[in-house]
């Protein structure tokens, strides 16, 4: 998966670079300027294919599955990344019974759970995040592990309120998410 992602990023960049290198062959009615060196088209094609091969080799070497350890795969999300996910819901809201409400409230709940786990696993320790962890604990108690649409809609105000309080708290602690 990482190889594909790296290749998807590298190949267009190499093709774009090769295309831009071709721009140096532009001529005017007077021919290329004296400051433009003449480059054979074969040299551009060779450089482009060499760049593609290097990008593929780097992508396969840097993201090969053999280099990933189980610890890498099970590492908790960083607080800043979890908070970014929660912030993505910040200006959203819903009306209970609306078709989008189930998705929205489920997402807010999931983002809060991800942030909860990240804060507990952070090097600063859970004591640093005492208030937000307490707010999420209270919410978890109210939800009683019931993530059904009906229950999330019933606790909509608490979900959104917890999200907003955590956002305000985090804004006062920028070193935790930058």
- Separation of termini? 28 Å
Contiguous runs where pLDDT drops below 50 for at least 5 residues = none
Helix content: 55-70%
Count of β-strands:
0
Question: What is the chain-wise order of helices and strands?
Answer: HHHHHHHH
H/I helix tally: 8
Structural class: mainly alpha
Radius of gyration: 26 Å
Write the layout of secondary structure elements.
Elements: H1 2-22, H2 41-62, H3 70-74, H4 79-87, H5 101-121, H6 130-143, H7 149-154, H8 156-171
Architecture overview:
With 178 residues, the protein is mainly alpha-helical. Helix content is 64%, strand content 0%. It contains eight helices and no strands. It has helices spanning 2-22, 41-62, 70-74, 79-87, 101-121, 130-143, 149-154, 156-171. The longest helix is centred in the N-terminal third of the chain and has 22 residues, at 41-62. It is elongated. The two termini are 28 Å apart. The mean pLDDT is 79.
């Amino acid at each position: 998966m990482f190889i594909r992602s790296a290749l998807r990023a590298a190949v267009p960049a190499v093709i774009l670079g090769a295309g831009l290198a071709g721009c140096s062959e532009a001529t005017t009615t007077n021919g290329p300027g004296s400051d433009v060196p003449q480059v054979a088209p074969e040299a551009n094609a060779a450089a482009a294919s060499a760049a593609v091969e290097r990008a593929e080799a780097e992508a396969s070497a840097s993201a090969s599955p053999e280099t990933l350890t189980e610890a890498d795969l099970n590492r908790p999300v960083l607080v800043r990344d979890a908070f970014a996910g929660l912030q993505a819901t910040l200006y959203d809201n819903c009306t209970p019974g609306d078709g989008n409400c189930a998705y929205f409230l489920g997402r807010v709940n999931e983002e809060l759970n991800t942030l909860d786990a990240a804060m507990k696993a952070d090097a600063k320790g859970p004591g640093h995040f005492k208030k937000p962890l307490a707010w999420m604990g209270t919410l978890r108690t109210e939800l009683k592990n019931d993530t059904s649409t009906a229950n999330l809609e019933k606790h909509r105000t608490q979900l959104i309120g917890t999200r907003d309080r955590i956002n305000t708290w985090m804004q006062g602690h920028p070193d935790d998410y930058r």
